[in-house]
Predict the 3D structure of the following.
Amino acid sequence: MASGLNALRSALPVAAALLALLLLWQFGTTALDVPAYILPKPAEILATALGRIGFFGGELYVTLVEAVGGFLIGSVLGILLAVAMILLPVLEVMLMPLAMVINAVPSIAFVPLVLLWFGLGMSSKIAIGALAVVFVVLLNLLSGLKRPEAESINLLRSFGASRLGILWRLQLPAGMPALVTGLRVGLARSTIAVIVAEMMGAYSGIGQVIYQATAQVDSLTVWAAVFVASLGSLALYGVLVALDRKLVWWR
Amino acid sequence: MSLQSAVRSPYAAVLIVAALWLVCVPLFSIPPRYLPPLPAVIADGVSVWPDLAAGFWRTLVETVLGFLAGSLLGITFGIAFAASKTLERAFFPIFVALQTVPVIAFGAIVVIWFGNTILAKVVIALYLAFFPVAVNTLRGLEQADPQRIALMKSFGASRLTLFRKLLLPTAAPNILIGMKLAVALSLAGAVVGEWFGDTVGLGVMLLQALYFELIPRVWVLIIACGALGTLLYGALALLERRFVWWRPD
Amino acid sequence: MADLAQAQAGATMPGQPYMELVNVWKRFGEGDKQTVAVRNVDLAIQPGEFVTLIGPSGCGKSTLFNMIAGLLPSDSDGSILVKGKAQQDGALLGKVSFMPQRDLLFPWRTVLDNATLALEVEGMPKRLARQKAEALFPEFGLKGFEQHYPHQLSGGMRQRVALMRTFLFERDLILLDEPFGALDALTRSMMQRWLLDIWEKHRRTVLFITHDIDEAIFLGDKVVVMTARPGTIKCQETITLPRPRDVSVVTTPEFMEVKKKLLAVVEEESLKTFASATMRP
């Protein structure tokens, strides 16, 4: 009850600010007579998005499937690699240079490559999404797994714990906050990478809608697509925040 | 220096990867469609050298201008949020939400506004750099220990002194974290911005390579983008060593 | 009481020490850079005995401790014997219940699950381990805090959870490395009396590191003084103060006499450490 009231109290200023911004935008553009191709009114954008809800929904669905698919593949791969490296340090010595070099390149630079390799369909978007996630998750989790001090590891060793026991009971829980950070950055990156890949070459998806509408200077559709894409990634972000609370319940 | 830390040095990493590339392509006869031999990539890079240099420079300028302006704006907003609780409570959640938005999509709108000028790319880079810097500046400023603030106040420090002597140094590590995130995003923004129509830049060349399916050229540009990103990141790391020499406790 | 101790310590022959350190050394590094952390340590610990160890800071106490816990191999010129048998590298792991200086509670585990950590590592089913731990909560003054997280507890309570974790890992020898070092004086003296209560009840063999002379005398059957680095044993003092002990014991003439004697020895060693630290360029 009290927490509900608190939530309301903290949501109130945000809602007020949001409303004020929207009103300013709506009436500002009306008063100054700003043409729609420069800045459409929020009501128009909403009307466009709602008017073609089936179309936008379908395109967003494609984008979300690609982003989530790439995110899942990339994060599972990143987690497995990090665990393998912590158990077999020789693997870290061998693979770390490659991971660092690939991670230094903005993942969008790989977009042409995955398009040439995997074609214009969904698989190329999933591949770029996975690529955008895997190293962030790997590097974050690896540094998290290394966080526990020697003292804590020694304590478990003195109880007779095996290497795997130490990983399971100490390093993995201690690495959770770092993993969640990696997942959060990774999700944002994979969404961006997928949309960018769609802009560059795709049969469908929100990015392709934006690209085509830009070419036709169809400002309203661009704005509506950006609005829909934002709702989509906000929803994904919400899922991740909930996951964060589940994985890192202690402070 | 242990083997592990030697491997973590960026120079060694580049050398190791180059050596692997040289050896593995003929050894496993990897088709050039996936990975052309390193000499072929280098030869292609040399053949387009003037374009490559001009493109590198242009993208660098776009990224740096956008990044600097975005960081400055971000720090300003971070400070404003830290100074005013009302402002923070009303607008900060909107910022956090906007940060998760696939901001690159706004690139299209910016190009509509500014046309195919360099300004369009700078604005996109600025926009992308802004959020991580603002959010991290606020987080950093909020980390100041209340007891240390009380100590400063007991010395009779004014708000400005408090800010300059305590709050800003406390926040500096976080601001730099935000800036490191931002510089990579700025680069991505500049490259993508060039796709919406331009004639010079790494992004333009990337798009051309895609259309003509020039795989060695794509690799040249991947390396160029990586080099540009590393250069900027390295400059920030130097800055960090200059301004954050202590370790937060 | 003594019979019980014998029974619990297992197959120790009468008069045979539970653990014996014979000429134990530990050197780090090679050639010129070699430093000796622990040198020529001989020590016997009887079953059920409470041995306290004091020495100036940096004297190699922790190195010695890590060797006894099996975390660090000792150099090959000496040996560590348990019930007369020499222990090879790592053989001591899982045989000694070890409590490091800091409580090292895991922030993601409740108090109850922190206490059962060692039992879980041993492979005991969670439910059984919890039942076993729950029985100890009143004795350790933690009743009602089973489901709390470490950050919700005071320093003294955290230390008791760490001690409970150590006690639940039922081994013949308990190693405690300055367990009360971080506590304030009042909490500390309460914890000391409480530890003695627990010890009288369970009668395990204890090796307790401290740098507080009062604590060493108040708790121990035997006080062992280490020299400045490289650490070795300077002297051993048997404490004959009657048990059970309470606060009043610290003001008795017997206590004062032992303290005077030990204070002189410890002072001498501390001065050596201090001098060598201040004379370095």
